[in-house]
Amino acid sequence: MSRKPSRKCPSNSKFCLICPLRFFRKIFPAKPARKIVIGVIGNPNVGKSTLFNELTGAKQYVANWPGKTVEKKEGIRFWKGCELHFVDLPGTYSLSASSLDELVSQEFILNEKPDVIIDIVDASNLERHLYLFLELAEMGARIIIALNKIDIAKAKGIQIDVEKLSKLLGTPVISTVATRGEGISRLCDAIVGVALGTIKSNPVLVKYSEDVEEAIRLLEEKIRQKIEKYPSRWIAIRLLLKDRDVINLVSKVAPEIIKEAEKLTYRLEKKYGQPIETIIAEQKYRLIEKIVSETVKYVGHPILDVTDLIDTVVLNKYLAIPIFISILWAIFLFTFDAATFLVEGIDFLFEILADFARNNIPNELIASLITDGIIAGLGSVLVFVPNIFFLFLAVSFLEDSGYFARAAFIFDRIMRKVGLHGKSVIPLILGLGCNVPAVMATRGIESEEDRLLTIAVAPLVPCSARFPVFILLAGIFFGKMAAIVMLSMYLLGFALAFLIALIVRKIFYKGRISPFIIEMPPYSRPSLKSISLHMWIRGSHFLKKAGGIIFLMSIVIWFLASMPPGVEFGGPESYAGIIGKSLEFLFKPLGFDWRIVTALIFGFVAKEVVIDSLGVLLGQNLEEVLPQILTPISAYALMVFVLIYTPCIATIATIRSETHSWKWTLFVVAYELILAYLLAFLIVFIGNLIF
Amino acid sequence: MHQKISFGLAITVSIVFGLTYLIIGCLEIISAILGLNIPLIPHDFMGGFVNITTATIYFFGIKELLNQDVRGIAFPFFGTIFGLGFSGLYLLIMLSSIATKTIIYNERLTTTILLEEIRIEILLLPILAIVLLWFRNHILRKFSY
Amino acid sequence: MRKRFGWTRKLQEFPKEKHLGGLIPLINMPKNGEGIVRYIWAGRGIINRLLGMGIRPGAKVKVLENSMYGVVILINGTKIGLCPRLASRIYVEQAW
Questions:
Q1: I need a surface site. Which of A556, B107, B128, C2 has the fewest CB within 10 A?
Q2: pLDDT confidence of C11, banded at 50, 70, 90?
């Protein structure tokens, strides 16, 4: 892929000569369109993703900010002869609280100097959103305000004088309703206008109180002489605010300015009796209040709206947790039971396919490769695709509706006791379906430490892939008690997750937990369009990662089980068998024989494969064969081992890409292996003593 | 702003639905533990838990409504949404099972199959829907400007 | 450039006693109580986060829920949930 698709030509090959236009343009290149770089920023929950999607259509591509784990989303739109290059900046409330998201945005604005910044603002809640705007203004950006959600504002009885607002803020203000795609063309016109200079954008700068302004002026004079790259007023204010990165920057060039700034800050703090951050913020808000009072009118005021009504019940002391558990159960039902039709359908189709292949392909080796390798492997992945998509659908629905914020709030207290964050509850719940989206869901956690910790324990939650292993073994070995044994697996998974979180927190982070604060957006009925979009994005991401890897590994497993040529498929002579036999000694104390070991090794790829491998290696009558090589105690130990030992390859890949650190990924893999072995050993040891 | 909602009606609705869900929930749990076969009641421990939760939501509302507190209307309102959500979900599951049996396994669509898959919450669906519509038209309008 | 997040700061710089006359922490506010935020006793990182979300001295706040899970407030037109620890460090002047 060496070419970005554009609106006129979706081809992404550099050498595409399909349509005459491309061919023509290769010989007679057109005048390059004027490229405009636009940063899109705004508070969380303001509709940034929706607006971004509307602006760029499907023409987006996702990467990572260089050197960071934050996702960078970019997209293109062609408008009036210009190439609008949009960059999605992480949603933040301000640009001063030193989280990774804010750092990324700050660096982008200052270093890459985009032509335009679109600040998306919630029309139904102007007071809060203008804070970010004022900070952007101080950074010297050329801003256009997208006044989003005006439909909601209107419904709430809020009237905004857009012209006056634009005048007071000094920038163009474009009303939009991102969910309906309204205002997009006006926004693009404004972008082109500001970039080319035909429309003015001079964001208003906060005028602080006299003593603060005096301090800024003193610093600015000195800064202007030494630093040209960044706006001097902004540097001055950041120095007063003790911004560590700005201090680093300035100390390289003019350390004396820093001492001066310290003195000035000390004086101001002494005078006002408040930390400098509060002093500066308060004055920003004073300007915001003034602007809002002149431009926003409340035509009607509801006493109670639906959101408050629902929250009265959902946040109720006694009802909160039962309601949460019920919703969890609903997700579970929806993911598994509602999708049965599609699951069975796919299973059926694959069986037909396999039979067809087996009967119609002459060469036995290739037939085997295709049926036992590719179709079996692909089939095992694709058969749970409906479940995954249904899971993502349910989760997207709940997330977009706004419930997750309440769930995180409710569970924060409990999570805290085990060293986790309230926002970790969602990833842990998602882990019940599949660990991959669970790891991806940790993106909402601001603090890196909490996030890493959640990622580390998420794989302990029993995912749906381990379910078949449990059901099979529990059914064969424990008969009537099967359900209780299954339940014990799930409880054990969560218990271990909490235990490990507690231990890691104590050892690595010395017990520090960051505070919990979350915005609870108004409940909204998510549009079919948006939840299907989310479902599709997550689902295809998952498929590409997991499907690709599992597909590859199925072929590898098939190869190891069939070679050297002529051996019994999966027998002791095959490469797979040799590997199993060589590691058998490690697992003898657990009561696992070499076939189980081989199955476990293959299960490293994906836990479902454990069952498949057992079927391949032991024949189809597992109910009869397994009790011959395993005792009930060892069977239980095996279940525990499968529960805990290393995440599947798809999860490992996801952990690596989310944490950007091989170190942490290896740590997770290692501790899980060790824990699995220890626990299985303990079970066998104690089990044999008792029984 | 003066809201007038008929507390009496809301309380009656709450009591009726609350008791209904309580009974259904208890039956489901009991049949799950003891293995009794009651028509329309599946052996579903968690399903019973959910229904008892719904019943509790309705009951909580009664106390608030008795105190003439307008906020009390939130409980039967949310309870109805909650019940409706699950009824819809159960309907979806029923359709999926029926589709699986008829289309994939090629069994004939008989009343036995329908009776196997149906559960009582699905039958409540139309009633809940009507109650919810009533809420929207009469109660929520009163909260606007 | 690496930035960290945590309760780091010399809290002794701004002793809360100096400001406490007549103020109560958010966590002691009754449900449906209203007031004005007067002082936040926390480190730099937390303060910046709170400020960005609108929790700042001078802002009118209304307590919507106050239970063992934490405190839910309506401030600056936004509904925000806070853990009990954080709520105990935000000092409010009660208004009736």
A1: C2
A2: very low
**How many other CB atoms are there within 10 angstroms of residue B98's CB atom?**
18
Q: Which CATH architecture has domain C20-95?
A: Roll (2.30)
Four-residue CA torsion sign, A331, A334, A335, A337: positive
Instruction: With CB atoms and an 8 Å threshold, state whether A273 touches C76.
Output: no
Nearest to C93 by CA among C32, C3, C22, C33: C22
Touching check for A311 and chain C: CB below 8 Å?
yes
The domains of chain C are located at: 20-95
Domain that holds residue B69: 7-138
- CB contact at 8 A, A240 and A265: yes
Evaluate whether the domain defined by A21-196 bears CATH number 3.40.50.300: yes
Please list every residue in chain C whose beta carbon sits closer than 8 Å to the beta carbon of residue A448: 5
In this prediction the pTM is: 0.81
pLDDT digits 0-9 by tens, A472-499: 788 778 777 777 787 788 888 888 888 8
Q: Report residue B67: phi and psi, to 5°.
A: -80, 15
Q: Which residue of A has its CA nearest to C38?
A: A274
How is chain A split into domains, by residue range?
A: 21-196, 210-274
Sign of CA pseudo-dihedral A535, A541, A542, A544: positive
The closest CB to that of B89, out of A309, A313, A330, belongs to A330
Q: Give A-chain residues touching C44 at CB under 8 angstroms.
A: 98, 242, 275, 277
- Which among B47, B78, B100 is the nearest to A340, CB-wise? B100
Q: Name the strands in the sheet holding C78-82, side by side, starting at the edge strand that comes first in the sequence.
A: A517-519, C78-82, C70-75, C60-67, C34-40, C90-95, C24-25
Give A310's contacts in chain B (Cβ within 8 Å).
74, 77-78, 81
